[in-house]
């Protein structure tokens, strides 16, 4: 498999495994705010990836 695929898989694994830590430390933040920032970050990453393509 290409190295690029390994990088994407490692990033996905890191993102999924650290979600519980983020939620634990941001317990006082409303769920809607947390969801907004997660979607905003994900859309920014996807936009950046598609701009490079």
Automatic annotation (TrEMBL):
<protein>
    <recommendedName>
        <fullName>EamA domain-containing protein</fullName>
    </recommendedName>
</protein>
């Amino acid at each position: 498999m290409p190295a690029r695929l390994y990088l994407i898989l490692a990033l996905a694994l890191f993102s999924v495994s650290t979600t519980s830590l983020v939620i634990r430390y941001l317990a006082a933040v409303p769920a809607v705010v947390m969801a907004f920032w997660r979607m905003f970050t994900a859309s920014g990453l996807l936009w950046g990836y598609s701009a490079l393509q």
